[in-house]
Amino acid sequence: MTFRLSFHKLAATVLASAALSGPLMAQDNNQNDTHNLYLQQCAACHGPDRLGGMGPALLPENLGRLKKSEAEKVIREGRPATQMLGYENTLNDQQIANLTDYIYQPPSHELTWGEREIRDSRIVNHPHGSLPDEPVFEVDDLMNLFLVVEIGDHHVTLLDGDKMEPIHRFPSRFALHGGPKYGPEGRYVYFGSRDGWITKYDIYNLEVVAEVRAGINMRNIAVSADGQYVMAANYLPHTLVLFDADNLEMLDFIPVENDAGDSSRVSAVYTAPPRDSFIAALKDIPEAWEITVEDEQARVRRMKSDTLLDDFFFDPGYDHLIGAARDGKHGIVMSLDSGETVAELPLPGMPHLGSGITWEYEGRRVMATPHFRAGAISIIDMDTWEVIKTLKTDGPGFFMRSHENSRYAWADVFFGPNADKVHIIDKQTLEIVKTLQPEPGKVAAHVEFDRHGEKLLLSIWDDDGAIIVYDADTLEEEKRIPMNKPSGKYNVWNKINYEEGTSH
Hints:
14% of the residues lie in helices and 39% in strands.
């Protein structure tokens, strides 16, 4: 609580100063000093160094999803359902334009977020074990719950997967990324934000248990298979950070460097359950790291590659890592036991391996992945590592999903003019058998099946959007649940059991 209280004291001081001086003091006395304008009008919520506080960090790396024109609109009009009020009656058009340009510029000095800052940021609302063990709501199956991330106004909806009805809706940190990760019991879920915040949420009690800020710009988090640890992967600074999962206490701080001292951003971190380890993808060094935890300390094993790798996929036994090369033209297969590259894959168009899925086809295991830059889906034999088929799609895709009990795989075409369409693939014929257009002109994306593979959810990715419920066999629409730009949906059972049709 120390961090939160001290921050509110700072906010009160800055706001009081602004109130005494009048809203346009910056225009009168510092017309050309946008930095001072920022300190007056924005620092109370976003921090004097733009690192964030009650509001998100305002740095180029953290604003990657927000167009400049959209940011200017937020400054002018505010953001609904948040503490961000509009400045159209406080600042003139030039000041708003100057502030918009300012937050998209790199800071003039080096930003620091180390062990001390991480420890000071931690907030524990309910120490582990202090909340009741029985849910405060009634459902038939706690394993068939969904969490739906609504990026339009930064909220999350808890959904009953049997009745397909919302149970509860709660605010999240700004720009959740990488998908929420469940503990093995399905009660606790961990969210990671672009701003580096990790939030532990108790689904049973509908309460935030604890939070900690692991970095300035974070890619994603992973939870160990036994539920004891959380690992954070950062772009800024170049670090991996290990936490105790109970109360998010920091256990280890790992600068990401090679033997020559070159540092790297971390593209992502994954859990490898059969290996009791984490696997990290590095953005700027041709290595993959396997991290085990011994005596609450991280032990790093470096696996070197001949090329920079940007995205990872794993076979079901976590014997092999499949990585996409940064050149966007091929991939490699690496043995996780030996660390050696055992095969290369022709994968033009930058595959989105993090969204890949697997299934059984003619007695063998295959994997399929969409591509960011090509209208294609590659289907690969996981014994021979040969591409056995390339499906042509209506555009580059982002997400693929299926379920062990379903005949079909679903793939969006998120990028390009046909983003309102979604393809349905027969997993036994390897053909697109149907193309849906659920809401013409609005992006359709990210399918997630229920626990049993009988129903599925599809997002209409729009502020005035919805979750569409489909019958997984008949492919018929059953109902729509209005939501604010819903993105990912995450079923408890599928995620904690690493169901073959969902991302891990």
